[in-house]
Amino acid sequence: MGQGRTGEGSLGRQALAHADALYRFARRLTGDEADAEDLVQETFTRALGAAERFEPGTDLRAWLFRILRNLSLDARRRERRHPTVAEAPLEALEAREGAPLLGDPELDRLRGVVARDLERALASLPEAWRALVLLRLEGLGDQELAEVMACPVGTVKSRLARARAELRQRLRPYARKAAP
Amino acid sequence: MTCDQARLLLVDLGASNRPAEEARALGHHLSGCPTCAALEREERALSDLLGARLPPLAAPERLRRALEEQVARAEALAAAPAAPFRRWAWPALAAAASAAALGLWLAPRSPAAPGPGGLAEEAVSDHLRALVAPRPDVESGSVHQVRPWFEGRLDFAPPVPELGAAGLSLRGGSVGYFRDRRAAVLHYQLRLHQVTLLVFPAAGLPLPERAGAAEEVRGFRAVLWRRGGLGLALVSDVDARELERLAALVQP
Questions:
Q1: Nearest Cβ partner of B42 from A23, A33, A107?
Q2: CA separation (Å) from B99 to A24, A66, B111, B159?
């Protein structure tokens, strides 16, 4: 197994430092604990098997997230058991007019949305948008997001803005019932 | 700064590494653009919500242990010499030659009965062959299609268990070999894991009467047992306890 570039032990040992973040991402991407554990284990299997191909000096965290997301996409394609109703083509969603802005009282209620409703709203986003929002929460910068999502940095920026706008809109029904 | 430029920056309100000039330009724009200022408040509210309400999650202990084992195995593999044969084979061959010269070469002419560990090794190798095969010979999720497919291809009728209730979906079947005999290779999927069930004539093989503890070979696990005149081997990379549970379901 290849050695990491920073002298902190093998690539596998360095990858272990990202286990929590990978699991969090997988759990919120799949919505299922067992699927998330499988995804993380399979990510390690692939990464350890391809350690010699990991280019020292490049971003290990982005590489691991990219492997995990690709595995997740493969599994979704294979299983076809995840509903695709909410997955309108991104192009169509991105071409949509912006929704009306939220007023201050609504923003106050937005802050009161409970965890379960927030997770539901996140889960309802198209996969690519959900992945971007979640990865940004894990602290990935624009360049890292571009590597994980395999798209240009400019696309990452505009898509992330649209993803967050869409998330705010999908939170509105939950905000209405939240205590201010 | 235009509204479009400002809105791309609003998604990262907390960015600490924003150049001072960019931060000033954004502030200037927001003070003169009520729409972008309202968007800024929305972004702030969303960031507050995501930061405060999403439950903190960490890898469960069993996953962490499994990952550490995976890494330790990979490290052990990397630490092993590339050609271990060279290290011990020559002394062993030299010793064997000396023994033969002394008339002490007492090994039986026929191969010794393989130990159970050797059978697990064989089962894992067969599982690896199934993994790299592009697809099963017969692709079907129905036991009623896969079972009859073996007729005429094998001189025994392999059981094809329906394991949907345990989360295993049948992907299909193939004909392969287990040691020197033809075997039914049944391909199942358990979440992201491939699970292979091998069924083969048991004659002459030291197989236990019941499915017992999983054996670990090269990071994979195998459970082998005998059922009448047939041998069965269940192989996967799922953890040992889960494989044993599945084997118990296949066993009856």
A1: A107
A2: 61, 57, 18, 47
Closest by Cα among B187, B123, B172, B230 to B251 = B230
Q: Which of A22, A56, A15 is nearest to A39 (CA)?
A: A22
Determine which of A44, A77, A119, A172 to mutate to test the interface with B (most B C-beta atoms within 10 Å): A44
Cα dihedral B14, A134, A118, B34 in deg (nearest 10)? 40
What are A54's two structure tokens?
């990991």
Asked if residues B99 and B204 have their Cβ atoms less than 8 Å apart, the reply is no
Q: Give the distance from residue A120's alpha carbon to the nearest chain B alpha carbon, in angstroms.
A: 11
* Encoded tokens for B199: 């069924």
The answer to whether A20 contacts B192, with C-beta atoms less than 8 Å apart, is no
Give this complex's ipTM: 0.83
Does residue A120 sit in helix, strand or coil?
A: helix
**Pairwise CA distance, residues A59 & A92, whole Å:** 32
Q: How many CB atoms lie within 10 A of CB B112?
A: 8
Q: pLDDT tens track of chain B, all 252 residues?
A: 888 888 778 777 655 566 788 888 888 888 888 888 888 888 888 888 888 888 888 999 889 988 988 888 888 777 655 444 334 444 444 444 344 333 333 333 233 333 445 899 889 888 888 887 668 888 888 888 899 899 888 889 999 999 988 889 999 999 888 887 889 999 999 988 899 999 999 998 999 999 989 998 888 899 999 998 999 999 999 989 999 999 999 987
Residue that the structure tokens 């084997």 belong to: B247
| C-alpha separations of B98 from A34, B16, B86, B88, B112 in Å | 57, 74, 19, 16, 21
Query: Which residues is B173 bridged to in the sheet?
Result: B138, B186
